[in-house]
Amino acid sequence: MQLATRAVVTAALAALVAVAGYLGGLPVTVLAALLALAFAVGWPSLANLPFRPGSAAVIAIGGVGGVLAVHSVQDQPYLRYLPVVFATSILLAFVNELLRRGGRERMVESVAGTVTGTLLAVAVAGWVAIGRTPGGEPIVVVGALALAVGSAVVALPLASWRGALVTTAAATAAGVLATLLLPDIDLLAGLVLGAAVGVLVSSLHVLFDALESLARKLPSVAAVVLPVTVTGILVYVVGRVLVG
């Protein structure tokens, strides 16, 4: 999948998160669970893990389990059961290795890659948590719109450092503009959130977009979903700091 195509798909997914955040509640949870599943399918191929079905199952359980754990909590802190879900997923990563046959080659790499993938999938629960926080719905919309714009701009044919600056500036501008259109959100929150999302998108672009495996379908699925999942926990942290 070409860079431009991946950028458009990521931007579209981020726009869906913005719409779900505007609707609130259940739509955000359902979309977050679907994103975790899509990431789980593609990550083992992107990371070149040796036992891909087992790793995908562990990541899916962790990601979807984290989303459901956050959704089921009735009061703050909404993330209080997320460490339990992640710790259980780590144990499942070792069970996954016990189920392997054929000598269990690259076992350390397999465990590390599965645990890393689970952590990235679990991060999507941040969208659900901030969406349920009082005053957090506009934060979801602002963060998702900044991500959509940043993901689209990152495909421009610019030098690495110049592209990072343009991407960060565009995401920051989108965050600021979104705060002007939405009630109950401070301009500073949009500025900080947009800048943080822009830096994240630029960093992920540098880390992953040169991989040759992205020419294949499944690794590309993980690559387009990854910015959306990771931004979830970033938006939650920034939102809690700025909104409370």
From TrEMBL:
<keyword id="KW-1133">Transmembrane helix</keyword>
<protein>
    <recommendedName>
        <fullName>Permease</fullName>
    </recommendedName>
</protein>
<feature type="transmembrane region" description="Helical">
    <location>
        <begin position="188"/>
        <end position="208"/>
    </location>
</feature>
<keyword id="KW-0472">Membrane</keyword>
<keyword id="KW-0812">Transmembrane</keyword>
<feature type="transmembrane region" description="Helical">
    <location>
        <begin position="136"/>
        <end position="156"/>
    </location>
</feature>
<feature type="transmembrane region" description="Helical">
    <location>
        <begin position="220"/>
        <end position="243"/>
    </location>
</feature>
<feature type="transmembrane region" description="Helical">
    <location>
        <begin position="56"/>
        <end position="73"/>
    </location>
</feature>
<feature type="transmembrane region" description="Helical">
    <location>
        <begin position="79"/>
        <end position="99"/>
    </location>
</feature>
<feature type="transmembrane region" description="Helical">
    <location>
        <begin position="111"/>
        <end position="130"/>
    </location>
</feature>
<feature type="transmembrane region" description="Helical">
    <location>
        <begin position="163"/>
        <end position="182"/>
    </location>
</feature>
